[in-house]
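Re-run with default settings, no changes from the original entry. Doing this only to confirm the output is reproducible before filing.
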Amino acid sequence: MTLRYVGRRLVQVPVAVVGILLAGFLLIHLTPGDPVVALAGEHGDAAYYAFMREKFGLDRPLPDQLLIYAGNMLRADLGVSYVHGRPVATIIAERLPATLLLTLSALVISSVVGIGLGLLAASRAHRWPDLVISVSTLALYAAPVFWLAQGCLIVLALGLGWFPVSGTTTAGFDGGGLEGALDMARHLALPVLVLATQEVAAVARLTRIGLLQELRHDYVRTARAKGVAERRVLTHHALRRALLPVATVIGGRTGHLLSGAVLVEIVFGWPGIGRLLLSAVQNRDAPILLGIFLLVAAMVIIANLLTDIVYGWLDPRIRYG
């Protein structure tokens, strides 16, 4: 990994973001439906409709709207929400911490647990632990996130009462410090569990496959012939090379994790970007939608860049020109 490569990738970021924003702008504004009608109702006065379109600049031709939006973006101005009447950047900044807490927790847990399960399955290949892990991860990977979230909500939260039903804190609770952190962790546990499930399955299966392939190579046989303990052969020799494709999957599934977070937030009433996105779609709040598109695009691009950096760390032989 060279600074020149990182610099070249960073130069590509604005181009990618501009392309995504252009596609998003056209997709939102060319979709059938009128945001003014969604905001003011279907039985509003024609003069009021005209006033609202002029207020939000929707009475201008689409190319003019695009140029105005591009100019605002150059000034780091994401616009004002049609529904909330507040700056988009402020609204997203209020919701972003909750989504980051949910997705980053799920990413860390799925990576650690997935690699651990894959390591266990490969070390017990073709025996009952491997069979149980393989069948379980395949079933979890095939389960739709929305269905899984509803099932866990009904059984574990409503039925058994092990977890809170929704929200980030208990209603009426105003404590802070350790007590407040524990209360939030209790509300966070079930949404993170659901969101991390499919990622655990994907990471575990890929880790198992990669390890089984690496264990067939000559360097592994040489290490065993020298008397190296089997645990060390797995963790210090084979695992590091087997993690190369796993790192690709973890970095490449960032967008998938964010899309799953939208569904999980809706089911569990988690006040993050997902619920904001649903509200913006229902109300055709274009500034909010474009702001979220920008955020997701930036997160995916950063995740891909970090994946390349991790690649170089896992295998120093990899060089980027």
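DSSP finds 13 helices and no strands in the chain. The chain has a mean pLDDT of 78.
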